[in-house]
Amino acid sequence: MATKTTSTRDLILSLLKKRNQLTVSAIAVVLDITEMAVRRHLNTLERDGIIETTLLRQAMGRPTNVYQLSNEGQEMFPRNYGMLTVELLKDLVEMDGVEKVQKLFQKRMERQKERYEKKMVIQQFDDKVYELARLQSEEGYMAEVTEEEDGSFTFKEYNCPIAEVARQFPFICESELQLFKEVLQTENIECQMCMASGQESHCSYKIYKTDQSEAGT
């Protein structure tokens, strides 16, 4: 796991990773702690969506609950998706040129646009900006919107799920900017900060209403 602590919580997660499914009693035996202590940790982990429970029916006796990692719990263990993706894309550039990678991300942007537009059944521009933030947050970008005194919006993203890839292929960020413009149906968006540069803690966009731009703001 990413953390190097040996707390009971982490020991339980490691056990579930190795054994796939375990009962409360089995966990208690392996860790040499009480079942009450195990249940306390399992209740918290299940509440946080890190583990899930299944009712196991047995040939004899009453059904019993077994615990396993949820998809979210599985993702708490080391993954190397970013580096693998970067390596594959670099190989693609070497074989077919950078234009091929650009086309791939253009298709990705088009899929996102189609998916977002189906949910963007909103007429007011302001509401669309907030809805875009919600949709981006669902994708893991931790987006936040602030409406400024001049009527413009500051659109920030505190996480980038594809940061490693974007650092190697900066045109991916241009693709995101284009996605915003097309979904919001405006050209009046500026990228002011970008995490892909490696020098910023978040991405920040300034979004102007169309009438502001026409007024010279």
TrEMBL record:
Pfam families: HTH_5 (PF01022). Transmembrane segments: none annotated. The keyword Iron does not apply. Residues 5-65 form the HTH deoR-type domain. The keyword Transcription regulation applies. InterPro entries: ArsR-like_HTH, Carb_Metab_HTH_regulators, DeoR_HTH, HTH_ArsR_DNA-bd_dom, WH-like_DNA-bd_sf, WH_DNA-bd_sf. Keywords: DNA-binding, Transcription, Transcription regulation. It comes from the Bacteria. This is Iron-sulfur cluster biosynthesis transcriptional regulator SufR. It comes from Evansella vedderi.
